[in-house]
């Protein structure tokens, strides 16, 4: 039987519980999920590539069905190179869908072998984004409950002004 592999791309700066929830739900459909950190020079990144890889690896707690690596270039080419046939995208709101749908159509044009699967974010994480978490911690707020414990500790080291709830 053919192994069903999906790629879950993003910048994950930082990785949060919404990301983790999408990965866990994807594993109900796919045998393996590759968390792929895209290198996007246009995005303002707070954490290094190595720090983001470390946060993800420690957050998935050694699950052998989940791997994590960086990629550069076209997502569909990277996905093909891994042997995956699916891309996972998480959606929080209708506004996410329009942009993600455009990307999915372009990816489909570039490779007919790759399918895009949209997963709705769980209700409790609808408002959570890496951007909101960064803004919160930079202002001294705590993202407790919104990020895995390991990520919370990394954030507290990088932003010592974070106050507990």
TrEMBL record:
Residues annotated as domain Cytidyltransferase-like: 7-134
Q: Give the E.C. number(s).
A: 2.7.7.3
Catalytic activities: (R)-4'-phosphopantetheine + ATP + H(+) = 3'-dephospho-CoA + diphosphate
- Which residues participate in substrate binding? 11, 43, 75, 89
Q: Which UniProt keywords apply?
A: ATP-binding, Coenzyme A biosynthesis, Cytoplasm, Magnesium, Nucleotide-binding, Nucleotidyltransferase, Transferase
Q: Which SUPFAM superfamilies match?
A: Nucleotidylyl transferase
Pathway involvement of the protein, from the record: Cofactor biosynthesis; coenzyme A biosynthesis; CoA from (R)-pantothenate: step 4/5
Q: Which GO terms describe its biological process?
A: coenzyme A biosynthetic process
Q: Name the source's superkingdom.
A: Bacteria
Q: How does it assemble?
A: Homohexamer.
Report the protein's function. Answer: Reversibly transfers an adenylyl group from ATP to 4'-phosphopantetheine, yielding dephospho-CoA (dPCoA) and pyrophosphate.
The name under which this protein is listed is Phosphopantetheine adenylyltransferase
- Print the organism lineage: Bacteria, Pseudomonadati, Thermodesulfobacteriota, Desulfomonilia, Desulfomonilales
